[in-house]
Design a protein that fits this description.
The protein has 624 residues and is α/β, with parallel strands linked by helices. The strands form 6 sheets. It has a 6-stranded mixed beta sheet. The chain has a 5-stranded mixed beta sheet with strand order 12-13-14-5-15. It has a 4-stranded antiparallel beta sheet with strand order 19-16-23-22. It starts with a strand and ends with a strand.
Length: 624
């Protein structure tokens, strides 16, 4: 089909010529340089791989394998057999724009050292992993848990409550208090939810049985990765029900459950030593309180703040990290004082009567927030390690003047950061605030959508997608005077990433021809930028190309990076709309540290992070 027709009105139609994907001039130049008489042999291709693609170890066999992979194109009569198989310009272009030439080589698998303690890794972490949608009215189910595990998420969070008869355990999100709702829209959503729940004669969130969740975790825990899965339990149970949980967990997981020999670990084990193991993390609970208060409120987050709207369309821009933390300091302090987390070893005797001993033995990673303010929270104990939880706003506030204390704490201990309570639509925050301070468990609502979640997906494409990413050395090292990395320090530029956006294709096959515009082909542009430490954050864009399903921008952008180890490259394609909001055309996020130099085919994903069948960009990456 060479032309496409759009109906403008009953009697008038517009016809547009359909472009054919052709190699840009620079690609033609590379082909001419690494070919002879219009043919590129395996040896020519090997030289191209070494010199342009920077694959220094590429062999003749690698080049021949790449040529062989194009055998399915034989019917197009574009493979040549002259002194062995060779490529012409069209096949060379197909190779560069094909799935065999990705920006990140996931087939390499795990590349990082996995023998360090768990505290030395960023861990793919979910928040309220059982929810199918918003925090108020969505169903609780094991399906989101399964989907998270299949994506590679390694930390699953379950809120466990007594059932209505007080004789069984359910996974359920707690009832929301009014202090969590700070926007008019929040009250409207709550009112609608209450009416809906009344009509359906059911609670705000429909519970799911704990045993069903545990069985699903066991079945799917290691489908995407062999490295350990941590289950964080938010416990609202009586001692007798805790004993039931202990029995369920023990019987479900059996030998794969990791139970430490001592009550408190002096150092966390390594991911390598815990392969295909399940780890339980929670805090030793206090006396059971029957009031169903949600953990987001308990953990100290009733601050006034704007409800994020990441969930709209393709999501609002990722919040910047340079500004002061929002929130009410007085409320923050009061909430901290009433926080229900405690040092797991503080007042053990007080807990003994209310804590089932078989339940306590299951806890491998002890969580707790000691009394005494942030000084005690961030104190490093050389004799034991633990997990501390802070809301995103608490972390921002503490990081203003205690950033190095957080880094020092996370060198041995685990810090979990969770979304503020006002994110009732299951939106997310900027994960870099946690990562740049060494936080291992940056907990996200995986069922939400938007740019923040795209960053999370992008980070954990690293290290073979195993769900564990080794923290950069500068977050793990201490100087002779115990000095550590200062997240607020001004650093010199370490490297420069050059990104040339050649072109894109695939929308014609993955979308209806009127999806973007009723009256003409789409007008695409690309946004390209960096998410990372504040000094590295930037977004740029190409020009808009009108009426073209196969846009050829051929524009280059430079990004000077002070902390490339934490930098994420963001690529988004949008379709310009003069009268309405621009349409979404695909996105991806790539960890800069894993990007392969050279000309690469970059597949794009939809809003939910699912890869399109055909949509991709042709991009040249170069580090200088």
């Amino acid at each position: 089909m060479s032309k496409q027709t759009y109906r403008v009105c009953f009697c008038f139609r517009r016809r547009f010529r359909l472009a054919v994907a052709e190699a840009p001039d620079e690609i033609r130049g590379f082909f001419n340089r690494y070919s002879e008489n219009g043919l590129m042999s395996a040896d020519h291709l090997r030289r191209f791989l070494v010199e342009v693609q920077k694959q220094e170890n590429a062999t003749l066999e690698d080049a021949q394998a790449a040529i062989n992979s194009l055998q399915e194109l034989k019917h197009l009569n574009i493979l040549h057999h002259h002194r062995g198989q060779s490529l012409n310009l069209e096949t060379f272009f197909k190779y560069l724009f094909g799935d065999i030439n990705p920006p990140i080589d996931l087939k390499r698998g795990v590349q990082q050292d996995m023998t360090a303690p768990l505290s030395h890794y960023f861990i793919y972490t979910g928040h309220n992993s059982y929810l199918t949608g918003n925090q108020l009215s969505s169903d609780c189910s094991d399906i989101p848990i399964i989907q998270a595990l299949q994506r590679g998420v390694r930390v699953i969070e379950l809120d466990i409550w007594p059932n209505s008869n007080k004789d069984g355990i359910e996974v359920l999100h707690g009832r929301l208090q009014s202090s969590t709702l700070n926007q008019e829209s929040d009250y409207l959503l709550l009112l609608f939810t209450v009416i809906l729940s009344f009509v359906r004669l059911r609670t705000l969130t429909t519970p799911v049985e704990l045993i069903k969740c545990l069985r699903s975790i066991k079945e799917h825990a290691f489908t995407a990765s062999d490295y350990p899965v941590v289950i964080t339990l938010e416990d609202h149970l009586t001692p007798d029900l805790q004993a039931k949980v202990a029995e369920m967990v023990t019987q479900t997981f059996g030998d794969i459950l990791f139970c430490p020999d001592s009550d408190c670990l002096k150092e966390f084990p390594s991911p390598e030593s815990l392969k295909k193991r399940i780890i339980i993390s929670t805090k030793p609970p206090k006396e059971y309180m029957s009031a169903a208060v949600p953990k987001d409120t308990q953990e100290g987050d009733s601050q006034n703040g704007k409800t994020a709207s990441d969930e709209e369309a393709w999501g609002k821009e990722v919040p910047h990290l340079k500004g002061p933390a929002s929130g009410n300091d007085k409320e923050e302090t009061e909430e901290d004082e009433d926080d229900d987390e405690e040092d797991p070893d503080e007042g053990v005797n007080r807990f003994q009567k209310s804590l089932a001993p078989e339940y306590r033995r299951l806890i491998a990673i002890h969580a707790g927030k000691p009394k005494g303010g942030m000084d005690e929270c961030l104190k490093v104990d050389p004799e034991k390690v633990r997990r501390l939880s802070l809301s995103e706003q608490q972390l921002e506030k503490v990081a203003e003047d205690r950033g190095t204390d957080i880094v020092r704490f996370t060198q041995r201990n685990i810090l979990r950061v969770y979304p503020k309570g006002t994110r009732i639509t299951s939106s997310n925050y900027n994960p870099l605030i946690g990562w740049m301070h060494g936080a291992q468990m940056v907990a996200f609502n995986m069922q939400g959508f938007g740019r923040s979640l795209w960053l999370m997906h992008g980070m954990f494409k690293s290290n073979g997608g195993c769900g564990y990413v080794k923290k950069p050395d500068f977050l793990l090292k201490s100087g002779p005077n115990n000095e550590v990395f200062d997240p607020r320090a001004t650093l010199p530029v370490k490297t420069t990433l050059k990104v040339r956006i050649y072109m894109g294709e695939g929308w014609y096959y993955d979308f209806r021809h009127t999806h973007f515009d009723q009256y003409s082909p789409p007008d695409f542009y690309t946004r390209v930028g960096i998410a990372g430490v504040p000094a590295d954050v930037v977004m740029k864009k190409t020009k808009t190309l009108e009426d073209n399903w196969i846009p050829v921008w051929n524009e280059e952008f430079e990004f000077q990076l002070t902390v490339p180890e934490l930098a994420l490259l963001r690529l988004e394609v949008h379709e310009y709309d003069m009268s309405e909001k621009d349409d979404f055309g695909g996105q991806t996020v790539l960890p800069v540290s894993e990007i392969q130099s050279g000309i690469r085919a970059v597949p794009l994903h939809d809003r939910e992070g699912k890869k399109y069948n055909n949509v991709k960009l042709l991009v040249h990456f170069d580090f200088v």
